[in-house]
Request: fold
Amino acid sequence: MGTGLPSRSARLCRRIVPVIISVALAVGVYSLAKAEATDTAAGDWQLVLHAPGDPREMLGHFEVQGAMLSGYLESDEGRTDFTGEVQGNQLIFSVPVRKPIRITLKYHLQVDGDQINGRCKMGWFGTSDVTGQRQVTQEVAQEPQQTQQQ
Reply:
């Protein structure tokens, strides 16, 4: 017959279930926050590579799918496609340059709202800062016109 006391397994379940629920909620919130952070990088950005004595303006186009990054950099000298990775709000990618010399530019950028900052390692030329901001589109949101019936 029962003693009126909960069994050992019932007491254990009462302790473990809240912990499991808390961990599951934390993982879910973290996943949502990570997805939101990476999605904010997508789009077009006006970038400046602050190379010594020769700052270079360019357009950076970023597409994000999970932890995968793809896109292109475009300047007066042409367009170069790249792939890379996303780690939170960090964008990490390399761009091969073939003219006028062969070199690989390694970018490590951080997105903060509509601003982007980071560094570009330019082989034996050293490392330079990169800054930029999200490119604002010229789309004008049109509000539906209300018609008044009389």
DSSP finds one helix and eight strands in the chain.
